[in-house]
Amino acid sequence: MSIENLTIGGTQVEVHRKKIKNLHVGVYPPDGRIRVAAPDSISTDAIMTAVLTRMDWIRRRQSRFHSQERQSVRRYVSGETHYFLGRPLRLTVTECDTKVHRISIEGRDRLHLSVPADSTPENRRKWIRNWRRAQLRELAAPYAETWASTLKVAPTFWGIREMRTKWGSCNPKTGRVWLNLELSKKPVEAINYVVLHELAHLISPRHDERFIATLDAHMPRWRQIRSELNALPLSSWSE
């Protein structure tokens, strides 16, 4: 795969040339970045034409991202709101004499972080992110097992990582599946949908009729869930 950057219609476009049959234009959060996946054989002029003919659609997508609500930068101090599984939780930070930190949810709307007295905001950020990763893994594991069995597919690996442009990814050739750590902030049904979506790519690598039929058969509301997920606040990417 090769990557090049073009200026098309006064806009920066990232072009990924791959061994694929069809050209795809995507607009991605949080800032409306344009990325094109193009066959190796297609000319630069053809890519530019394809982007220009889609420019009205691109502008609408970018406008939606720019107007979408964003979470403020977190400082990991008492009183902040942190989202978990679609619920806003008010953070309470207490200092303790030990060197061990503890994180717990209290009631329906409190997130308690007990930290060593000399902890820094960066320490707290790392601890909460690690906690989110563990919580998401525990929640998603049964979904991954159930959908793999239902779809009769066998992922070789699945994990969690930070991703800026996708809720998840799947490499059909290797069977490796990744979930976006940001999903720990989103409702449970959205997590379930993303797991199904990625495992369905082990049936069809593209968003073709076979792929769509798989989602329709096993999760009829998937379009509504996807729409609700994409409308939720974006990360500040400074957390």
Task: Indicate the topology.
Elements: E1 2-8, E2 11-18, E3 24-28, E4 33-39, H1 44-53, H2 55-67, E5 81-84, E6 87-96, E7 102-106, E8 110-116, H3 121-151, E9 157-161, E10 168-171, E11 176-180, H4 188-200, H5 209-218, H6 222-231
Parallel strand pairs: 2-4, 6-8, 9-11
Antiparallel strand pairs: 1-2, 3-4, 5-6, 7-8, 10-11
Helix pairs in contact: 3-4, 4-6
What Rg is obtained from the alpha carbons, in whole angstroms? 20 Å
How many helices?
Answer: 6
Unreliable residue stretches: none
Question: Oligomerization state of this entry?
Answer: single chain
What fraction of residues sit in β-strands? 25-35%
Widest beta sheet: strand line-up: 1-2-4-3
CATH class of the largest domain: Alpha Beta
Shape: globular
Determine the CATH superfamily of the largest domain.
Metalloproteases ("zincins"), catalytic domain
Summing up helix and strand content along with how strands pair, one would put the structural category as alpha/beta
Total number of beta strands: 11
CATH topology of the largest domain: Zincin-like
